[in-house]
Amino acid sequence: MKRQRLAAAAFAAMLALAACGRDSGGEDTDTTAPVSEGKATGDITVWAMGTEGEKLAAFAQDFMTENPDAKVNVTAVPWDAAHQKIASAIAAKQTPDVSMVGTTWMGEFAATGALDPTPASVVDKAAFFSGAWDTTVVNGTSYGVPWYVETRLLYYRKDLAAKAGVTAPASWDEMTSFATAMRDKGGAKWGLNLQPGGTGSWQSFLPFAWSNGATLASGKDFTLDSPQMTEALAYYQSFFTNKLSPPTDLSLQGALEQSFINGTLAAFISGPWHVGLLNQQGGAGFKDKFAVAPMPRKQSATSFVGGSDLAVFKDAKNRDGAWKFVSWLSRPDVQVKWYKAVGDLPAVQRGWEDQSLSGDPILATFGEQLKDAKSPPAIPTWEQVAAVIDGEIEKVAKSGADPATATKAMQDRASGIGTGS
User: Which Pfam families did the record assign (predicted)?
Assistant: First the structure.
């Protein structure tokens, strides 16, 4: 997702104001107000982005049928304008009641003091995938709920794997052997596609770091130069050194899907959206040529969790109605209906019991992977730190830079940026 950055002065001012309501440890000292019982009433203003923004108004009719004295007013916001629109609304104290918020934005907006802490009576934390719930938590307090989720799996050509005499890899060692065999015996030019740096490459790399036991931060201190992080980056680099992964970003070129379909590329790591893309572009019968598998294991088999959260603002004019709408959207049956309407995967675990998800082998694998998936720390400065990580990954993948030197650079520059908390 694209974003526009806050002006430094305006953002600093908001942080300073927010600090007035926090104790010396940075924790919000406000007591979460309860939400009234009974049906929702009044106007509820909602901002949502992308397809969700286009579809939510019609979908909310069911909520209004259940709550006849409430009216949901949805404003569709383009993703490339969303960050600045929310930031400006916070600064002007002209926020909607509730908004969809990208998971990597939660730390930044929570730090302004503008988000309402999640009332324990509204939703059950245990109902959600833990990795998804963690995207809402800043300094130990939740400021929203996960709305929908995605994670990453290994996509691979089953026919090429059969020709190469290999099965889906379950470990790091097997991943290397798998990619090598797909290239040398399966007929592919590239055994596995990994993003060679550039914007967003941290999402491709961090699952390997997490699976190796690496952490990104401890309290207000970064831990990006740990031995676990360095070892994971060296493993990631090996696919480029051994010419198993292409040195250019196939996704940026728009060539990833066609390379996979024509057999030039044997495998790649991506999210659930690629199922539909491959079925559409591959034509009749291609769905039988590929499969998905969980991330390979080292200490764990952890993947990345993404998606979007829902947050209610402290300046909401209809706080009760907003939280009741969020609670409704979090019901398992509503999450399944939303999946069927839009294709967004449920953040609530019970939603995955529905046959439309559990009965599909590919989607069921995504559901299993969501049980072991993480997000980066919810800190205000994450996107600045992520840009540093992206740059160092590119040096390692494209220029053969030393992984230890790269992780030290990540650590030094990230420490200079700080966590903003």
Answer: SBP_bac_1 (PF01547)
